[in-house]
Amino acid sequence: LNAAPGRAPRQRVRFLPAPDGGxxxxxxxxxxxxxxxxxxxxxxxxxxxxxGAGHRLDVKASGVFxxxxxxxxxxxxxxxxxxxxxxxxxxxxxxxxxxxxxDTGKLVEKTTFDHITREKLERxxxxxxxxxxxxxxxxxxxxxxxxxxxxxxxxxxxxxMGKSPPIITAVRCLQFALPEFQLEIHCLHETQQYLRKxxxxxxxxxxxxxxxxxxxxxxxxxFTLDDALLRTQWNLQSIQNAIRDCQLRVKTELEKTL
Amino acid sequence: xxxxxxxxxxxxxxxxxxxxxxxxxxxxxxxxxxQARRGxxxxxxxxxxxxxxxxRLQAYRHVPVGSYSPRDSAKDGSFSxxxxxxxxxxxxxxxxxxxxxxxxxxTLYEDWDDIPPSSALEEISEEEAVQIIAEPLLPLQSSxxxxxxxxxxxxxxxxxLGVDLSQVExxxxxxxxxxxxxxxxxxxKILLFLKDVGVEDNQLGPFLTKNPYILAEDLEALxxxxxxxxxxxxxxxxxxxxxxxxxxxxxxxxxxLDNRLGFFKNELGLSVKKTKDLVIRLPRxxxxxxxxxxxxLQVCQIELGFQRNEIQQIVFKTPKxxxxxxxxxxQTFDYLHNIMGIPxxxxxxxxxxxxxxxxxIRERHMFLTFxxxxxxxxxxxxxxSLDQLVSLPDEVxxxxxxxxxxxxxxxxxxxx
Lengths: 258, 416
What we know:
The complex is a heterodimer of chains A (258) and B (416).
Chain A: E1 11-17, E2 27-33, H1 39-42, E3 51-53, E4 62-63, E5 67-69, H2 72-82, E6 86-94, E7 96-98, E8 107-110, H3 118-139, H4 147-155, E9 167-177, E10 180-188, H5 192-205, E11 210-220, E12 223-224, H6 236-257
Parallel strand pairs in A: 4-11
Antiparallel strand pairs in A: 1-2, 3-5, 6-10, 6-11, 7-8, 9-10, 11-12
Chain B: H1 2-10, H2 32-38, H3 40-44, H4 71-80, H5 105-114, H6 126-131, H7 146-149, H8 153-161, H9 165-168, H10 174-180, H11 183-197, H12 204-210, H13 219-231, H14 236-245, H15 254-268, H16 272-281, H17 284-287, H18 291-303, H19 308-317, H20 326-339, H21 344-349, H22 358-371, H23 386-391, H24 394-402, H25 406-414
Helix pairs in contact in B: 15-16
């Protein structure tokens, strides 16, 4: 950013002695650039950038992480108030239980898991989804008996518009290969530790134990994995392109909700 | 003295009207505002002289922050002794109102007798008003050099050389040092010396940005140090290279340099020729601290488990390992040895993996395992050498080594 041409140095009128030597000294008014504005004297024009972060992402988790630059920080609060769902890919491992529900924690117990099948897992997952659906309806503070509520529910737009405990709107089993499995979770107002706890509870429900190996955010409201920039792409050009691409989508989403 | 103060303060502002004021004694008859300035002239002219001294008021030398240069006293000397020969170009120091030159009483009375001093509220004619240029005063204290750069030739010339003043002013006392030096007298000699040593012209700017303190060094001391290096059989081009890459090198005294060279010879156990080669390639070793180097060697030996001859080989190939951070070294080694399964002798052959980023190694290794091509044993087929793993750019790595496209690589990275 600093390499972009800055403003030209101020000019100043200085009276310099004229180059003709000897007796008559005339004054020549010349425009001389003020040295104080010279880039080597002034230093780089921009030294700091204001960067704000969107929804939190753990150290152990990975995935889409939204950042706001400068004036974009105001949009971040608006996006937070939209309460859009986030989609995670959660990987788990049967047979172990640790104290912090992830595979790097202290081992608490080991169990067998041969009795687990895919149908059992999907049954448990459906139970979780049903229970959370009730919580969703309750926290969205809409009177269920009205016509508007029915229309919103048909479109799938019922969601809590204020503070609420973590709610899972949809769960799906992506892969199942004993002892590993992978789930896709759509959720609201959650933390990654809550998701790890869910994995642990799934293990308990299946009369075994499970730890979470991977939590990866695929989608955060409007932003998906395709828009995400890799570490190798953290340069000015890609960031500018990414901002430009997402601008329109963010605007339409905000107008729709607020 | 109060009258004098008023007059001096009036043209304490930068009077840049460089007029060759003809100053015979008859000028007294002119208007009163110009009189005060010319009041100096009779002092400067010895009574016996009738020549005309072109009196040029040039851009004044900047008054160093917080201290007043000895020029003030020089001015006093010249005024109070009318017999001294004034040079034709007098660089007049503009003293601030608070520090009046202690002019002799004679001049004061001279002035009082002849013409009553003009007051600041007197009306002056239009031409006189146009001729006075009053500019804001320079600040006495400032945290940047921006305020002074326009008024100081030294700073202006340094900027034209390429010295980055915004970085220099962040260093301790460097800004103050630059202000007190004179380009013609001090800086020029040292610049010529540096050019003799072999620093390129376009390198002088960055060199001085990193090491402005060299301008305060004594020229003989610098020359003894270069002579010492030559006596240790470092060639001229090599000395030039070392000095350019490690600007602080010439600040060290001869004993210190000697101690450091001896330290490296003893610690690493390499021959004299190899130590010299090492130091030429990484002159930062001589200017940096020595304890981290010792600790790094200990880490290599004890924690990483390298033998002494292996350490010598590694250090000779990549001396940067001595200045790397221990945590990073340990993490990289841990990943390479335990997770990728690379034995010590392979790491000795390719020590440049220690210099690369752990993230890079990890991503590429995971991609290769995903494709099933992670083979680092030279005896097996489809072997991938470690230096190719880390040093190739992404596109070449993908097409040659992994035999996959870059989009696949990026998609894979997004799944990590």
